[in-house]
Amino acid sequence: MTAPPAFPNLAGQGWSVHKKPVFATLVADHASGREVRDALWQYPLWEFELCFDGLASDSTSYPGLGAQSLQTLMGLFLQAQGQFGTFLYTDPTDCRVSGQVLGAGDGATTSFAFVRTLGGFAEPVGWVTSVASVALNGAPQSSGWSLTSPNTLVFSSAPGSGVAVTASFSYAFQCRFLEDGQDFEQFMQNLWAAPSVKFRSVRSS
């Protein structure tokens, strides 16, 4: 599977950054005051909002912002066709794990989803970008496994029953823009801003 384009890392990004996990729950109220709740999603979707205080529209006026950084960000939005296409967003605070437990072998299963843990909650990651190491019961495995995009570890032979499968890897969120329009503001010659860029994660297909 071909990886989507990457969201650019631009020097003009400002503060603050918003990140929101979202679940979907059906809630039915009863006359007694009690309620019934049904969780529709096992894992959340993640919504992000970034702001860019400075984007250069040429190659020389603001070298610290990166040459044509406006065109870089605008070009990704155009390439995605607004909400239609997807891209990979690397959250600098949530993009890699070391020694992550992926599961335990049963002697038959050869595929394990790459997951990461936040507190006591584990969920599959959107898109694995690189794998540093894989281990079985703590023993590094230099071969006998492969990465199947977007987020599956596949062994050529099933790990034995009770064998702990761990990995160290990097990942990104596969996302789409939340709107079909994106506002860019020019406030000086060759200098632009994007006060609000919103996007959310999507389920890996």
Would you kindly provide a written description of the structure presented here, covering whatever features stand out?
- The chain is 6% helix and 48% strand.
- With 205 residues, it is mostly beta strands.
- The strands form four sheets. Strands 1, 4, 5, 6, 10, 11, 14, 15 and 16 form a nine-stranded antiparallel sheet that branches.
- The longest helix is centred in the middle third of the chain and has 12 residues, at 69-80.
- The N and C termini lie close together (10 Å).
- 22% of the residues are buried.
- The mean pLDDT is 97.
Work out the helix count: 1
Order of helices and strands: EEEEHEEEEEEEEEEEE
Radius of gyration based on Cα positions: 21 Å
Alpha-carbon distance between the two ends: 10 Å
Mean pLDDT: 97
Unreliable runs: none
Q: Judging from the principal axes of the Cα atoms, what is the shape?
A: globular
Q: Give the DSSP E fraction (strand runs of 2 or more residues).
A: over 45%
> Structural class, from secondary structure content?
mainly beta
E-strand count:
16
When the domains are counted, the total is 2
Helix content: under 10%
Main beta sheet: strand number and arrangement? 9 strands, antiparallel
